[in-house]
Amino acid sequence: MHCFVRDLSGNSLSFDASTVHELQFALADRTGIPIPEQRLVYGSRQLVSTRDESLASFGIVEGSTVGLALRLKGGAPKKRCTAMLSATDRCSQAAVRIVGDCQLCQAAFCSRHRLAEDHHCPKLSDCREQAFLKNKTKLEAEATPSEKLARV
């Protein structure tokens, strides 16, 4: 079957293949993109690379254009709790998102170790003092004029 493949730069390449595997092999030969990194898409559906799966089973007819994309690699490793259970053992639970991150030391904690009592951050006392001063100035700014005169 004669079909076209639109490559990464937008050019159309013509191929004669009957299965997805033959198409990927011919594409790797012509473009130099290895087969494991190829991702062929037709009709918003990815063509699975099996040796026996024909192009017609995906609805590809003579003269159809198949899109080529590269597989996405990577992704950030999952955050793990950084709490120490003992001198040598670390908690192996997954970190809780948003609530479990310390803004002071960039450590992540699971739901069991996310409380301030369990977290021994060296900047925690400074943080408490800054929070106290911030709340104090906020409350003083919200005071009524009679309360402000009473303080003077």
From TrEMBL:
The Ubiquitin-like domain is annotated at 19-75
A Gene Ontology molecular function term for this protein is:
zinc ion binding
Endpoints of the signal sequence: none
Q: Which Gene3D superfamilies does the annotation name?
A: AN1-like Zinc finger, Phosphatidylinositol 3-kinase Catalytic Subunit, Chain A, domain 1
What keywords does the record list, in alphabetical order?
A: Metal-binding, Zinc, Zinc-finger
InterPro entries, alphabetized: AN1-like_Znf (IPR035896), Ubiquitin-like_dom (IPR000626), Ubiquitin-like_domsf (IPR029071), Znf_AN1 (IPR000058)
| Protein name per UniProt | Ubiquitin-like domain-containing protein
